[in-house]
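Deliverable D4.2, example record:
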Amino acid sequence: MSGPLSGLRVVELAVAIQGPAAGLHFANMGADVIKVEPPAGDASRYGKGINNPYTLEVPGSQYIAMNKGKRSVTLDVHTPLGQEAMHRLLASADVFLTNYRASALTRMGLDLNMLVERYPQLVVGHANGFGPRGDDADKAMLDGAAQARGGLVSLTGMPGEAPVVPGAAVADHTGAMQLALGITTALVARAATGRGQLVETSSLGGQLWLQMWELQHSALTGVPLSREGRHHPNIRSQYGIYETADGEHLMFVTAQTEEAWSNFWIFLERPDVLLLEAWNSPAKRLGFEGSMDGLAEIRAHMQDAIGTRTMAELESFLYTQPEIIWERVRDHAAVLTDPQNLANGYITEIELPVAGTVKTTGPLMHFSRTEPPATRRPPVLAEDTETVLAELGFDGEEVRSVLEHAEGVRNELLALLQQTG
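Output generated by the structure prediction step:
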């Protein structure tokens, strides 16, 4: 296996998004990521979501997205054999990664501080909802709860209306980024000191990281930012989203030069806007200087003018203007076929049972000497259990016992799911 982290072993005991997305980073980088699933599997295997025509033979989209390139081992860690297998895995690993609540891990015999003491070279990475300290350290969390508590929801939506939920699981993903970054940092420290350590982060912390600038502004001024709808809450300029004549939407950021600003308004046949002194420099157009008195006026001019042109007309012109920063607002269908994403390997393809060839996100990093391996499909539940347990020294009878126990639990769950539709 190739990649910058080839040779690294990561044991992942994680569900849903936050933990598995962090594990995905290591799999993408070439590490051997062994996903330890309960006998019935990660629950996200069975979440169909909307518009999903497939049966349970095809894992849910959340599972596919977060678990590509890993190996799947099913263990019941509440049994003596499951405990023994888990500890042999940890003894062989560089990293243990989990997003189970600390109390649940303790009940499984996997107390975080105990693991650090028992395996001195192991980096133990733990992410939860609201951080490892405080009254809510063990509070249950799903993505929307962390978004709400972290303040992002309060800034999303139209002014004067109720806040809305952003269109992605940004809390879980930012928590995953922080967890992967923390684990990588601890591995660098281990290279210097020879010792692993416990790394802890959370979805709530990820939300604060995601909003560092906006939170800093509220703290500095003493006035919390508020919802601005199609515009950023802390950029008081023409920066924002505008509707075209054919109902598409254009994100206009700024014109970086006077020539580009002039060309834009001449193209739109509105040279009168160039006489507005409040917007006659790049710094003013990005809200860095000048008065905000003309804010509503410039945004109204932008919408009126852009609304007279189709997206095709605007794109034809804007691609001739390298000093104007803009983008068409793309839906998922357009993102999945965007030539820029395809050229960089950000969107690639995998083969799934039953579903066939499916587009998916690929590694988002390129390395000049240790290029990550090609994206691989997520594992079939338990498909690597026998191989991994054999690697750990378990005999054939012990392996059969684990497999039979897992299959029994899994069949019970599948029967229940089929009964409930």
